[in-house]
Amino acid sequence: MKTTLVLLSALFLIVSCGKYEKPFITFKSPEKRLLDTKWKVDKIVKADLTEETPNETFTFKVEGSDSIFIRTIDTMSYTGTWKWLPALDGEIDKQRIVTTISIPQVTPNQVIYDVKVLKTKELEIIDMNSGQRGGGRYYFSKN
Questions:
Q1: To the nearest 10°, the Cα dihedral for 106, 49, 20, 61?
Q2: pLDDT digits (tens, 9 = 90+) for 26-72
Q3: Among 36, 42, 41, 43, residue whose Cα is nearest residue 69
Q4: Segment 5-31, tens digit of pLDDT
Q5: Which of 78, 77, 76, 95 has the alpha carbon at shortest distance from 86?
Q6: Any residues with CB less than 8 A from the CB of 4 and at least 6 apart, and which?
Q7: Which end of the chain is more exposed for a tag (fewer CB within 10 A), N or C?
Q8: Mind spelling out the 3-state secondary structure of the chain?
Q9: Is the pTM of this model over 0.90?
Q10: Residue 82 to residue 97: CA distance in whole angstroms
Q11: Cα distance between residue 39 and residue 60, in whole Å
Q12: CA distance 126 to 115
């Protein structure tokens, strides 16, 4: 009984340690949860706490060695690239995503998003370039 309790406690600590909110137990890597899903923006909460509900989607893909990022605003699709932000000692920081995309009238072209929630059907990210163009916290659902 004591051994079972110790093992369950250790498992809970290992599973609960993480940088962002994720499912209690998951067998999918962050990539599997993020990729090949069209993420629909449910709302954006700006720094001044105003909310927007744009007609917008984000799609993250990997085709061969290419990481493809597609941002659709209304009916216009813009294609660029994405990657996890590099970390120390050659590691990869799977909490921050860097996207590079050219959208007319929108600068900068490179945006860093901080992942706050990454579940199979739910994604929340913060636009870390908020001081430059409004940014905010994006709430997504699987489309």
A1: -30
A2: 667 888 889 978 999 999 998 888 999 999 999 999 999 899 999 99
A3: 36
A4: 445 444 444 444 445 555 556 667 888
A5: 95
A6: none
A7: N
A8: CHHHHHHHHHHHHHHHCCCCECCCCCCCCHHHHHCCCEEEEEEEECCCCCEECCCEEEEEEEECCEEEEEEEECCEEEEEEEEEEECHHHCEEEEEEEEECCECCECCCEEEEEEEEECCCEEEEEECCHHHHCCEEEEEEEC
A9: no
A10: 7
A11: 9
A12: 7
State both tokens at 84: 């996890």
Distance between CA atoms of residues 68 and 122, nearest Å:
20
Q: Distance between CA atoms of 117 and 70, rounded to whole angstroms?
A: 20
